[in-house]
Structure formats: C-alpha cells, structure tokens
Amino acid sequence: MLPAHVPSSKSFDLAVVPKAPKKHYIPPMNHPWRKASFEMYCNKQAHRPKEGIA
User: Fold this and answer.
1) What is the mean pLDDT of residues 9-28?
2) Confidence of residue 53 (pLDDT cuts 50, 70, 90)
3) DSSP secondary structure string, 1-54?
4) CA distance 39 to 17
5) How far is 47 from 41, CA to CA, in rounded Å?
6) Mean of the per-residue pLDDT values of the chain
7) Which are the contacts of 29, defined by CB distance < 8 A and separation ≥ 6?
8) How far apart are CA 36 and CA 29, in angstroms?
9) pTM exceeds 0.70
10) CA–centroid distance for 33 within its chain
C-alpha cells in the first residue's frame, strides 16, 4: 500500500543543510576588559588575601 501523502518532493524540495554553530569570541586574559572583570571577581572573594597587604 502506498502512502497518500509524501512530506517532501524529490524534484522541488531542496535538502536542508544544518548550519554550523558559530564560535563565540573569548578575549585573551591580557585583554583590558577581561583583566578588569577578573580583578573585580578576585576582589569579591572574601577568602583570598588582598594584594599589597602583607
């Protein structure tokens, strides 16, 4: 028995090619934005000693 309806046509419908996921840019650790963000994170850590205080 043949199906009454075919979801796609070999003649007219093109094969759907999935897009490759985009890579997100992660700046290096010496980037000014990243360094400032990391320093703010370190300063929020209560269990770490502060730099310059000895």
Assistant:
1) 82
2) low
3) ---S--SS-TTTPPPPPPPPPPPPP---TTSHHHHHHHHHHHHH-TTSPPTT--
4) 43
5) 12
6) 78
7) 35, 38
8) 10
9) no
10) 18
